[in-house]
């Protein structure tokens, strides 16, 4: 039956973990997937998550199905985290929100909703480059995927002119995918002034903004600051869609806790959209898993745990910032003549090193340092113990 099924390539990001596992060298380094590690290179379960889990177990909850759109105490708190305490969309009950299988699931529900209901050409514009999975998620949802310029290879910075010009040139009423903060893979975000300009152009062209916010809190250590773009667009009068993930900022990777929401024009519109999201989700997976959502809800809804969590998010962000500085100074100490200032100016989980695919190949084959082909390294995988060897390896392949 399946003789016609061809062998597929490994996943661009998750395939790196497979290659890493197969390497027997004890000092191997995995900077592939964006997953936080502590300074001894171990996965980190946030103490606030442990405390929330304890509370949940002690309250002896049942394991009944959640509703189709998930655990209400979670979605309510997720909306508040993203849109902020002063959001009129929240106070006017205009946000349609559903729990999702983390950020990917949120993007996929969004893709499916747009495919079914978006008026016009159903074309989504994503940045070049973008998270490797964006293209596949939206293609598989049945949308047409196009690109806008984002990264300037020469300056290793934002190609703001190119971005604005491509968004202007996109046919009126296109969907524009924007990384809310900590752009993946480049770690390069627009400034606040640039966001205002982007918002204006998106408005003028009648485009529809779809934000992917997978790193709220992770970029700056401040969840409000990282939500700037989302809130600015709403202030400017946009209706937006939003994908949220709690994988990184709560370290809930495998729990798959996320949310998809649409800011509607009225409570009545919200009711209609909600009803269609339910019709869409039911045949996909019925209803989402409850444990991760309960953890996130209990952290977000308990003032003491919430404060503790914010401190821990900041701790993760700060460790990443200090590893950036350490990597840069180690490269300089080794005598590297390249300008590595982008390593410390970029933010979030990743550094976009500017290394070429053949150099990334060499890093893996000759130095057992694993990361994606595009030159992205997960800074969260750097530790005070491995940074020297990492810098030395990068120095050797870049000359
Ligand atoms: C990444 O970009 O490494 C993360 O978002 C994990 C993933 O699912 O790709």
TrEMBL record:
Residue span(s) of domain Aminotransferase class I/classII large: 27-394
EC code(s) of this entry: 2.6.1.1
The keyword Iron-sulfur is assigned to this record: no
This protein's GO CC annotations: mitochondrion
A GO molecular-function descriptor: pyridoxal phosphate binding
Pfam family, one: Aminotran_1_2
TM annotation in the entry: none
CDD domains in UniProt: AAT_like
Any one GO BP annotation for this protein: L-aspartate catabolic process
Name this protein carries in UniProt: Aspartate aminotransferase
């Amino acid at each position: 039956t399946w003789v016609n099924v061809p062998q597929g390539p490994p996943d661009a990001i998750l395939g790196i973990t497979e290659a890493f596992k197969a390497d027997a060298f004890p000092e191997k380094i995995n900077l592939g997937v964006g997953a936080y590690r502590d300074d001894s290179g171990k996965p980190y379960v946030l103490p606030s998550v442990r405390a929330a889990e304890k509370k949940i177990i002690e309250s002896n909850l049942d394991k009944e199905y959640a509703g189709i759109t998930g655990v209400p105490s979670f979605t309510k708190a997720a909306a508040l985290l993203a849109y902020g305490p002063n959001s009129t969309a929240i106070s006017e009950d205009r946000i349609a929100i559903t729990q999702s299988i983390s950020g990917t699931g949120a993007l996929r529900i969004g893709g499916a909703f747009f495919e079914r209901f978006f008026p016009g050409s159903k074309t989504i514009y994503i940045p070049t480059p973008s998270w490797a999975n964006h293209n596949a998620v939206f293609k598989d949802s049945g949308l047409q995927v196009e690109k806008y310029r984002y990264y300037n290879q020469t300056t290793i910075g934002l190609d703001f002119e190119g971005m604005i010009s491509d968004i202007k040139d996109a046919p009126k009423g296109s969907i524009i995918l924007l990384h809310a903060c900590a752009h993946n893979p480049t770690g390069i975000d627009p400034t606040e002034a640039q966001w205002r300009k982007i918002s204006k152009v998106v408005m003028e062209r009648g485009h529809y903004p779809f934000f992917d916010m997978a790193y709220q809190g992770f970029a700056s250590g401040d969840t409000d600051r990282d939500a700037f773009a989302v809130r600015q667009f709403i202030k400017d009068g946009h209706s937006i869609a939003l994908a949220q993930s709690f994988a990184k900022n709560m370290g809930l990777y495998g729990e798959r806790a996320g949310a998809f929401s649409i800011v509607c024009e009225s409570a009545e519109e919200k009711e209609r959209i909600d009803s269609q999201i339910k019709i869409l989700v039911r045949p996909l997976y019925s209803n989402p898993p409850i444990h991760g959502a309960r953890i996130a809800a209990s952290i977000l809804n308990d003032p003491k745990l919430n404060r503790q969590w914010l401190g821990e998010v900041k701790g993760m962000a700060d460790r990443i910032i200090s590893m950036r500085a350490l990597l840069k100074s180690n490269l300089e100490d080794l005598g590297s003549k390249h300008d590595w200032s982008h390593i410390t100016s970029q933010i979030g989980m990743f550094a976009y090193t500017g290394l070429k695919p053949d150099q990334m190949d060499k890093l893996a084959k000759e130095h057992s340092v694993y990361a994606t082909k595009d030159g992205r390294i997960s800074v969260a995988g750097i530790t005070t113990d491995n940074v020297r060897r990492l810098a030395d390896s990068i120095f050797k392949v870049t000359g």
